[in-house]
Specification:
Layout: H1 2-5, H2 18-37, H3 43-66, H4 79-82, H5 87-114
Helix pairs in contact: 2-3, 3-5
């Protein structure tokens, strides 16, 4: 299967197999979602978490660009292919989503700081 081929290749930034990287990031995302949904923390801290994780996503993409990675970000795995979405479109949509999360959370943090 073409989608599983990437799992045995290595990430150019961290040097880990994509299988290990996806598992690690998946756990980080689950912990983040748990903190946002069930965590008894303030809205301000939740915005900081969203800002932080979106920064992480965008910095990873910037690092891929700096090492001249010529493929779409592997963050979706074969999900785009399963939905019959072109890789470039899915890659662009994920970039826009991460940028939206960063800008939105940063702006809300700035607005709430003024009040």
């Amino acid at each position: 299967m073409a989608g599983t081929r990437i799992l045995s290749s290595y990430d150019p930034i961290f040097g880990l197999s994509f299988q290990m990287l996806f598992a690690s990031v998946g756990v980080l995302e689950l912990v983040t979602v748990a903190a946002l949904i069930v965590g008894a923390i303030s809205s301000n801290k939740k915005l900081i978490i969203v800002c932080w994780i979106s920064c992480c996503f965008l910095l990873y993409r910037a690092d891929l660009w700096l090492v001249h990675w010529q493929h779409p970000c592997p963050c979706l795995g074969a999900f785009g292919q399963a939905l019959h979405i072109p890789d470039k479109f899915a890659d662009g949509a994920m970039f826009i989503l991460a940028l939206y999360m960063l800008v939105g959370s940063a702006l809300l943090l700035l607005v709430w700081k003024r009040h």
